[in-house]
Design a protein that fits this description.
Blueprint: H1 2-14, H2 22-33, H3 49-65, H4 71-98, H5 103-132, H6 137-157, H7 159-191
Length: about 190
């Protein structure tokens, strides 16, 4: 049962990093710093004050640039490598704290979890820009930040709920993108 709990907690913590790399890392480090969780070495570096300040700075930059049309696309391209790695670190840190799984396996699972969420985000964001003329980017970005923060916090204390939330959101996002693509193909076929 510990392995299942650990997997759910890891997924619930890593997947939100696909939306915002820095927020789940900052939340995890802060909760570890105040004693809410115990991070094992080497992941306890997240509790270092300097690391927390750097994460806060990086989060501040991402929060602003992710709200600007076109700049958010560049931000997503840059974060194509950062978000999955952040997810890998978070998943490995979670399984390292709870036990039951090798942190290397946790890193790979986190890499895949955050990478999948990031891929859906990076695919969907240009659609938002296109359909709203860029006006919807700020709203969607705020929602992504909210989901990332709340789900990461839940993952530390109620991991089953966090994993369920991320699975539902990811499923709905994939469904919406696939539905949009099917409509687009159908219109292209009708036009020819």
């Amino acid at each position: 049962m510990d392995a299942i709990y650990s997997l759910l907690a890891g997924f619930g913590l890593a997947a939100p990093a696909g939306l915002n790399a820095w927020l789940p890392l900052l939340i995890t480090g802060f909760v570890g710093k105040v004693g809410g969780i115990k991070l094992q070495a080497p992941f306890d570096i997240l509790t270092n004050t300097w690391v927390l300040l750097i994460l806060l700075l990086l989060l501040t930059v991402e929060i602003f640039v992710d709200k600007i049309p076109a700049v958010d696309t560049i931000n997503d391209i840059v974060h194509t490598f950062i978000r999955p790695v952040a997810g890998g670190i978070l998943f490995a840190a979670q399984v390292g704290a709870i036990g039951g799984l090798d942190p290397t396996v946790g890193f790979v699972l986190g890499l895949l979890s955050a990478g999948a969420v990031h891929a859906v985000k990076a695919t969907g964001r240009p659609l938002v820009t296109t359909f709203t003329g860029g006006l919807g980017n700020m709203v969607v970005s705020l929602v992504e930040d909210f989901i990332s923060g709340v789900t990461a916090a839940l993952a530390l204390f109620v991991p089953i709920l966090a994993a369920l939330i991320m699975a539902v959101i990811l499923g709905l996002a994939i469904w919406a993108i696939l539905r949009w693509r099917a409509r687009r193909r159908r219109r292209q076929t009708e036009d020819t």
